[in-house]
Amino acid sequence: MLPLSLFQSRTFSAVNLLTLLLYAALGGVFFFLSFALIQVHGYPATLTGTAFLPFTIIMAVLSRWAGGLLDQFGARLSLTIGPAIAALGIGLMALTVANGSYWEFLLSIAVLGFGIVVTVAPLTATVIDAVPAHETGVASGINNAVASVANLLTIAILDAVALSILDHALARNLQNPDLSEGVKHAIQAAHGQLVIEPALSNIQGADKTNAALILRGSLAESIRWVMLIAAAFALGAAAAGTLIPRSTTGSSSSPQSA
Hints:
Low-confidence stretches: 248-258
Mean pLDDT: 86
Number of strands: 0
Order of helices and strands: HHHHHHHHHH
CATH architecture: Up-down Bundle
Largest sheet: none
Distance between the termini: 22 Å
Helix content: over 70%
CATH superfamily: MFS general substrate transporter like domains
Shape: elongated
């Protein structure tokens, strides 16, 4: 079912590597962004949902324009610049996690959306053009599978990374001798989870305020590192774009060899 000969094409292999890394970055960002907005900043779910609108609007409005980039600039340039812009957007998001405003989140999401829209249409066309005409369906299916696997793997891996960083940050805060017993109990209860409200449910007053500051700060640190890892994935995708030959064969041709 999976003709391995397709990966003899340098273009096909590079584009699927790019897809793996870019969709890993995108999956991680979308998963942890909600935690940053709700758990760290305390925004309601409705406002958190609207934060994704710039990404959706940019994808809808600019997709047709992005489709012409392949003819104007070629696959290599589009698939290098697009992921690099996406990495910039994720990097801005990492800087916004702890103290950024809602509008700064919107800006970083808009930059990410622009980078993705620059990438997606040329990526799809390049996957199709990299293989013979009778194998375009298989090529498209492989690329879609790679994107799905990337989303699943990155959530599993980055979730473990985020919890590890969070637990380390919480343990570091526990070393503060000035903390009350109530705050210490809340910090201990927050270990191993990305949702902080349950840990705060049994304390009140100043203890609750102090514990909330520590838990939100630790969670922000964790998410910031995850966002930086996702940005590195996107930069890796940009590097994969440079592996694409300057000129690619059409779908009626045989695959290019590496």
